[in-house]
Design a protein that fits this description.
The chain has a domain at about 1-105 and about 160-190: 3-Layer(aba) Sandwich (Rossmann fold). The longest helix has 17 residues, at about 15-30. It has helices at about 15-30, 80-85, 90-100, 110-115, 130-135, 160-175, 175-185, and strands at about 1-10, 35-45, 50, 60, 65, 75, 100-105, 125, 140, 145-150, 155. Strands 5-2-1-6-7-11-10 form a 7-stranded mixed sheet, sandwiched between helices. Strands 3-4 form a two-stranded antiparallel ribbon. By secondary structure, it is an alpha/beta fold.
C-alpha cells in the first residue's frame, strides 16, 4: 500500500487554527483514504516537550524535527514567527526539505519560507498583515488570494485560509470527490457567517 507522510510544524507561539485546521482536514482525508493508501499526519516540533500556542493552548508534539525523517508534505503554520526568522539552522532544514518535499504554509508562515529563500520571485499568499514584509523579500504576493499553488510550494492567507488550502491539497493529491467528502464531514461552508458592519 502506498504510504504518504505529512508533518505539521508547531512551536511555542504557533497560531492554533493555523495548524489545527489543516490537521483536521488532513487527518479526515487519512481516515477516508485508508483502504487506498496509508496516510500519516504528525505534529512536529523541536522536541516532544509540550508547546504553548499563541492563545495559550498547550499541545504535545508527536515527533522531534531531528527524528522526523523524509515526509511527502510539510505544513508550516503562522503565529509568532520572530524566533524562527533568526534560526538559520531551522531555515537550512527547510531549504534541505524543499528539494524533495511539497512545502506548504499558512498565514505568516510564508514569511519564514521567504526568509529561507523558498519563495524568491515566486507567487504566494499570506496573512494581510504580512503582505508588505513578504513582498520586501522579493516575493510576488497576491493580497487577495486564499491560497496560491506554485507547484512545489503552496501558501495560504491567514488562519482559516489554511482549511481552504488543505482541501485544495486533498483535491490535488487525491481527487475532487475526496476533497468534497472531507469538506462535508467537517461541515465547512466557505461563505462567511458574519455580516459586514457597513451592511448592517
Amino acid at each position: 500500500m502506498e504510504r504518504f507522510r505529512i508533518g505539521i510544524w508547531v512551536w511555542n507561539g504557533v497560531e492554533e487554527l493555523d495548524f489545527a485546521g489543516p490537521y483536521e482536514v488532513l487527518t479526515a482525508w487519512a481516515r477516508m483514504a485508508r483502504d487506498e493508501r496509508e496516510i500519516s499526519v504528525q505534529l512536529v516540533a523541536e522536541s516532544t516537550e509540550p508547546i504553548t500556542c499563541s492563545h495559550g493552548l498547550r499541545v504535545i508534539p508527536d515527533v522531534a524535527l531531528a527524528d522526523l525523517g523524509p515526509v511527502d508534505l510539510f505544513v508550516h503554520p503562522g503565529g509568532q514567527v520572530g524566533p524562527l526568522l533568526e534560526d538559520e539552522a531551522f531555515q537550512q532544514q527547510l531549504r534541505d526539505r524543499a528539494a524533495s518535499t511539497l512545502m506548504t504554509s499558512v498565514c505568516n508562515g510564508a514569511v519564514v519560507y521567504g526568509h529561507a529563500g523558498l519563495l524568491t520571485g515566486r507567487p504566494a499568499a499570506t496573512h494581510w498583515s504580512a503582505v508588505e514584509s513578504l513582498a520586501e523579500l522579493g516575493v510576488r504576493v497576491d493580497p487577495d488570494a486564499r491560497f496560491v499553488d506554485d507547484g512545489t510550494v503552496v501558501t495560504s492567507a491567514g488562519v482559516s485560509a489554511g482549511i481552504d488550502m488543505s482541501l485544495h491539497l486533498v483535491e490535488r493529491l487525491h481527487s475532487e470527490e475526496a476533497a468534497e467528502l472531507v469538506r462535508r464531514y467537517i461541515q465547512y461552508e466557505p461563505a462567511a457567517p458574519v455580516r459586514r458592519a457597513d451592511a448592517l
